[in-house]
Write the structure tokens for this entry.
Amino acid sequence: MADVSYGQYCPISRALDVVGERWSLLIVRDLIIGTTRFNDLARGLPGISRSLLTKRLRQFEQAGLVERTGSHYVLTKAGQALEPIVFGLGEWGAQFAFGDPEPAELDAELLVWWMHSRIDTSGLPGRRHVVHIRFTDDPRLYWVVVEAGDPSICKTDPGYDTDVTLIADVAALYQVWLGKLSVNDALRAGKIEVVGSSAFTRRISSILQMSPMAPAVSAAVRA
């Protein structure tokens, strides 16, 4: 429960006592999309302290939203029931509160972290696939190595052959990831460049699975 209850006998008030504090719904968001380990949750929420993340997860356990199984935090039935609420809030945000980004919101490392688990190479031959991401306005380099469907991020060259390299500035890749701009439109406009094997470049639109919020953002852009 919240540190200080709203003190109103109302379902909305009671719900906010459980998930209305800072960071709570973002933690729930990441649990919904499949992040279950503490370190992975922390990595996807770089602005939260580890002590506060621990506190929020403990509150969720006490409220019956999550269960801890070994090193994994798994949503209960009550936690899973928050999915339409969280994504409904995202749809509202996409329509009414999602303008141009602030510079501080364009975090290249966080974007790569979000993207890495949404790269689908299951339709390509071989057990290992390597995607190199190079930003034109950030000196850091990233490689996403997908081994038998399990993706990981390297910040130094892993020493494997690279299948495809994505080149873009941070803002442009955010636009694509979030559905403000399609991959094909970004390619035609020269906002991103894709270099590599034809097996990858031909299918880049299906290999790069966008943010779960991309359909809502795309719909808001078209409206």
